[in-house]
């Protein structure tokens, strides 16, 4: 079995973000980067499947990004990936999900992977598109937002997280692509000996030009901080009027009361 | 000049940070106040399984071969969450390293994997005595050869991890006639050896989860081959190994200092007095500026000492400088942090009082600040004589 | 401008989020038609055209078949945009449609901005304005971002859709009910907390009733827990749990810094307090100046309605 895991390196979400010079992305200069959280679930699930199958599958890790991305790739290798492909692209953030997915699909086309794992979305862009687009471009069956995964004899059974805590169970035949959600598993910490050993694993470097020349289908016109929370509103007066006003405000301002 | 960590060092730092945040931090306050030894030991076991007990130890003995810089950054991350765990990890690494450096092949193969894998919760380093603290050569514990065994008599104090250590590295006088410091040898004593008595546990100001005990040797008989390294050469070894331990303790102090300042700084941006966030007052800003500057300087000194050791260069002076500066800077940072929280900083509702207690010992153990200055001056003056 | 709206249907029910699609189309100033894979028994209330495919035949979750149904509706209507809710149904299906049409997709739109779409980035710490570069585009809207005004009404003009085959690579097996868990406030979307201002232990159920009316969890400040009025597992603050719900209602909580540290990350904070100058007011989005025991029962009654 050949497994591909697609990962992205994203900033620590606890960071402060500010727009970059041309206001099309965030300024990366003072940020600490790590593996996208959802992609950690993807790596973990792939490694668990490899363990389940007695170590037979080969796990390839793929990531698109600048030089620094190697750190996230090495983490995936330390967690149990066998080899890696680094599509070295300093302008990755100017590419939309369609272009990113096209590059991945173009690489994967020749490799005939049986199973592809991705995160359900990236923590920075959050479009939740790339995995599904890759599946469509490669003609794979696909399910998103997995909180449960099992594999048996060429069939994957997935548990999808739906709204309100309900789960949807479905079966897919290989070849397939699944996108992973929080709750699917608990990613292992890479052990220190494995971090050191990952140094010796192959990381093949590719350039975007070798893969896909697709034009963008969406563009970021601007990026900016959201409007600040105004000062708190004080409601005084008669109880009945307060109740009505609060209800109105909650309906308007929060997504929880409808 | 390249001042950045390698990718591997960054990943080790990340593993340490993530583990510390999710496993150690939530437990730290409870360990400090009520104690929970099974939980404390369970976390040590997990850290061992991740490879944190032998960072600078060869793979054939179960070590991680990650180097001294990685050891330093890992210690800092662990200490940010729990200083008691960090000191235990630091001592375990030091015990592994001393066995690796001077142990026989059999000793290395037997003991290092037991500590690295977590089969032993800890290893212990038994040097200090009531009359031999800053002056360890003044020790009086003796080891006398009797047939096929050594017989140990005497006592040690302030022994980290004594109740749950699997093995103790013990220094004892083997030649009472030799000049001071020249007749001391080093032994490996297993937990449970008849005549090895774990004495009373100290009630310390901080680092409560890490046990610190008296150790009594009452005609404690150990095999002849429990001698480690050359006979009567033990003191030189102890002094050399303490250098590595100092990098560990300096890194630990840095972690506690950063935790305290991070907490207090965040607090200062929330706490309002006189109608303003207290972070808008210059009195608070200067504390923030001073402490972070000192902690950053400490970090660079530690990195430099670790890098020298990792490159096989002399590092005793640099390790002492780093330990001296980092522990004193961390103490000042914790003092400032308490001050920034005001009365709240003196209550157990906030973690900074714990940081302040935990950090206090760092400028005392593994060589007091005063002893570090003696070493630094001696090393410098060598070049002027 | 014409929008094809993709309605949502699950476990035999039309989902309310379907009406948010219409609200979005109205905000966009677009004419709208809808596609629903659902049933005659659960038709949306609206006056526009609705393409209905039978969920009994095409499944509630079968993205392969639903994609083909959407494409058929696209063929008939030639819409400028195809709009989904950004939900487990929408984010799963939308990119498949986008690829088939080679249309750009904008995900999880939270607002409109002069013809461009606003989306969040980096945990909503940044906002991004996105413009489609393809003639036709696929859009998904954040649930709750475009609330319908007024009650939906009307009767749709139905047109049925069918596919020639129902072969699919995905087999839907069924649903699993949500698990019942203990109190894990850290994951709660709504928390209603009781503070010393509730007065006595006997009053705590009044606060708990509001929590359950809102579909949330009960929280508490430390004095209330220390007094034994509420179990420690409900405590919010430095010595309890740190929470970040979408809505936090602080009832009779003055706002000691220990408490604030545990809940200040809430998206929206309502405080109910007699004291207009209580510190909780500094971080609350709304401070209701009232007696908790008078206001909360009245508000609960309103919510229950």
Q: Please, how many helices of chain A?
A: 6
Helix content class of chain C: 25-40%
CATH topology-level fold name of chain A:
Rossmann fold
**Residue share in β-strands of chain C:** 25-35%
Keywords (chain A): Electron transport, Transport
Domain Electron transfer flavoprotein alpha/beta-subunit N-terminal (chain A): 23-215
InterPro entries (chain A): ETF_a/b_N, ETF_b, ETF_beta_N, Rossmann-like_a/b/a_fold
Family (chain A): Belongs to the ETF beta-subunit/FixA family.
Structure description:
The complex is a heterotrimer of chains A (258), B (385) and C (305). Chain A has 258 residues and is of the alpha/beta class. Chain A has a single domain (2-210), classed as HUPs (Rossmann fold), CATH 3.40.50. In chain A, 28% of the residues lie in helices and 29% in strands. In chain A, helix 2 (69-79) packs across helix 5 (192-198). The model of chain A has no long low-confidence stretch (mean pLDDT 93). Chain B is an alpha+beta fold and 385 residues long. Chain B is 52% helix and 16% strand. Chain B has ten helices and ten strands. In chain B, the strands form three sheets. Chain B has a four-stranded mixed sheet. Chain B has a four-stranded antiparallel sheet with strand order 2-3-7-6, with helices on one face. In chain B, a hairpin with a 2-residue loop joins strand 9 (272-273) and strand 10. Chain C has 305 residues and is α/β, with parallel strands linked by helices. In chain C, helix 3 (63-77) crosses helix 4 and helix 5 packs parallel to helix 8 (292-304). Chain C has two domains: 2-160, 3-Layer(aba) Sandwich (Rossmann fold), CATH 3.40.50.620; 185-304, TPP-binding domain (Rossmann fold), CATH 3.40.50. Chains in contact: A-B, A-C, B-C. Chains A and C meet through helix 4, strand 7, strand 8, strand 9 and strand 12 of A and helix 4, strand 7, strand 8, strand 9 and strand 12 of C. Strand 13 (233-235) of chain A pairs parallel with strand 17 of chain C, so a sheet runs across the interface. Chain C: Belongs to the ETF alpha-subunit/FixB family. Chain C: It holds the Pfam family ETF_alpha. Chain C: Keywords: Electron transport, FAD, Flavoprotein, Transport. Chain C: Residues 3-176 form the Electron transfer flavoprotein alpha/beta-subunit N-terminal domain. Chain C: It comes from Geomonas propionica.
């Amino acid at each position: 079995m050949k497994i591909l895991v697609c990962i992205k390196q994203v900033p620590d979400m606890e960071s402060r973000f500010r727009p970059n010079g041309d206001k099309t992305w965030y300024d990366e200069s003072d940020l600490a980067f790590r593996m996208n959280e959802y992609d950690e679930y993807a790596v973990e699930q792939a490694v668990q499947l490899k363990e389940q199958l007695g170590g037979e599958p080969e796990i390839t890790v793929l990531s698109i990004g600048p030089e620094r991305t190697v750190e996230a790739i090495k983490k995936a290798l330390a967690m149990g990936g066998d080899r890696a492909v680094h599509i070295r692209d300093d302008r990755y953030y100017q590419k939309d999900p369609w272009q990113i997915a096209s590059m991945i699909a173009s690489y994967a086309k020749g490799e005939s992977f049986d199973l592809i794992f991705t995160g359900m979305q990236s923590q920075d862009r959050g479009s939740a598109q790339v995995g599904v687009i890759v599946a469509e471009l490669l003609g794979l069956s696909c399910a998103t937002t997995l909180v449960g995964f099992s594999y048996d004899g060429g069939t994957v059974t997935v548990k999808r997280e739906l709204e309100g805590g309900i789960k949807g169970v479905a079966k897919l035949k290989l070849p397939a692509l699944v996108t992973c959600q929080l709750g699917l598993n608990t990613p292992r910490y890479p052990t220190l000996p494995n971090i050191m050993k990952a140094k010796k694993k192959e990381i093949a470097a590719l350039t975007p030009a070798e893969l896909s020349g697709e034009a963008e289908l969406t563009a970021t016109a601007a990026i900016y901080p959201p409007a600040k929370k105004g000062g708190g509103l004080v409601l005084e007066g008669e109880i009945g009027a307060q109740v009505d006003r609060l209800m109105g405000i909650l309906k308007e301002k929060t997504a929880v009361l409808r | 000049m390249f001042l950045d960590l390698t990718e591997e060092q960054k990943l080790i730092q990340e593993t340490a940070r993530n583990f510390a945040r999710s496993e150690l931090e939530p437990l730290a306050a409870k360990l400090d106040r009520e104690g929970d030894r099974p939980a404390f030991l369970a976390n040590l076991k997990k850290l061992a399984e991740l490879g944190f007990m032998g960072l600078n130890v060869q793979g054939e003995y179960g070590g991680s071969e990650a180097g001294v810089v990685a050891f330093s950054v890992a210690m800092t991350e662990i200490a940010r969450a729990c200083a008691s765990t960090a000191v235990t990890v630091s001592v375990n690494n030091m015990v592994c390293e001393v066995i690796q450096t001077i142990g026989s092949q059999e000793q290395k193969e037997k003991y290092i994997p037991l500590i690295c894998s977590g089969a032993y919760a800890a290893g212990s380093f038994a040097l200090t005595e009531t009359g031999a603290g800053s002056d360890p050569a003044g020790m009086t514990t003796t080891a006398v050869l009797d047939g096929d065994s050594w017989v140990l008599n005497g006592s040690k104090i302030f022994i980290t991890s004594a109740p749950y250590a699997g093995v103790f590295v013990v220094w004892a006088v083997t030649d009472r006639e030799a000049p001071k410091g020249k007749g001391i040898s080093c032994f490996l004593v297993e937990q449970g050896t008849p005549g090895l008595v774990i004495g009373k546990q100290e009630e310390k100001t901080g680092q409560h989860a890490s046990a610190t005990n008296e150790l009594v040797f009452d005609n404690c008989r150990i095999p002849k081959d429990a001698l480690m390294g050359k006979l009567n050469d033990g003191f030189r070894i102890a002094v050399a190994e303490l250098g590595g331990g100092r990098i560990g303790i300096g890194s630990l102090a840095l972690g506690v200092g950063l935790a305290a300042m991070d907490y207090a700084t965040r607090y200062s941006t929330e706490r309002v007095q006189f109608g303003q966030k207290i972070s808008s007052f210059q009195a608070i800003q200067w504390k923030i500026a001073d402490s972070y500057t000192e902690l950053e300087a400490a970090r660079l000194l530690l990195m430099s000492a670790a890098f020298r050791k990792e490159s096989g260069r002399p590092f005793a002076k640099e390790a002492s400088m780093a330990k001296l500066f980092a522990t004193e800077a961390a103490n000042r940072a914790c003092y400032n942090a308490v001050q920034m929280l005001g009365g709240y900083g003196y209550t157990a509702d906030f973690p900074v009082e714990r940081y302040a207690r935990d950090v206090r010992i760092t400028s005392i153990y593994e060589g007091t600040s005063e002893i570090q200055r003696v070493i630094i001056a001696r090393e410098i003056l060598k070049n002027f004589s | 401008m014409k929008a094809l709206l993709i309605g949502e249907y699950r476990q035999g029910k039309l989902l309310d989020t379907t009406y948010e699609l219409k609200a979005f189309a109205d905000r966009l100033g677009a004419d709208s038609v809808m596609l629903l894979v659902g049933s005659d028994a659960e038709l949306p209330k609206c006056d526009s055209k609705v393409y209905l495919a039978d969920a009994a035949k095409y499944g509630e979750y079968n993205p392969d078949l639903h994609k083909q149904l959407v494409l058929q509706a696209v063929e008939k209507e030639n819409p400028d945009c195809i709009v989904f809710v950004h939900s487990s149904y929408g984010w799963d299906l939308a990119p498949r449609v986008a690829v088939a049409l080679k249309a750009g997709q904008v995900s999880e739109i939270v607002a409109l901005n002069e013809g461009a779409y606003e989306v969040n980035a980096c945990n909503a710490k940044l906002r991004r304005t996105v413009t489609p570069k393809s003639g036709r585009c696929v859009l998904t809207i954040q649930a709750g971002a475009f609330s319908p005004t007024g009650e939906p009404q009307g009767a749709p003009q139905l047109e049925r859709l069918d596919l020639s085959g129902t072969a699919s690579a995905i087999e839907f097996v069924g649903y699993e009910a949500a698990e019942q868990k203990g109190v894990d406030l850290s994951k709660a979307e709504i928390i209603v907390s009781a503070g010393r201002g509730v007065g006595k232990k006997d009053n705590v159920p009044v606060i708990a009733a509001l929590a359950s009316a809102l579909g949330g969890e009960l929280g508490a400040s430390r004095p209330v827990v220390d007094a034994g009025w509420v179990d420690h597992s409900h405590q919010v603050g430095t010595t309890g749990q740190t929470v970040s719900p979408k809505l936090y209602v602080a009832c009779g909580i003055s706002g000691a810094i220990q408490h604030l540290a545990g809940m200040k990350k809430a998206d929206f904070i309502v405080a109910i307090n007699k004291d207009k100058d209580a510190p909780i007011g500094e971080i609350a989005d709304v401070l209701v100046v009232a007696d908790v025991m008078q206001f909360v029962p009245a508000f609960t009654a309103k919510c229950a309605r």
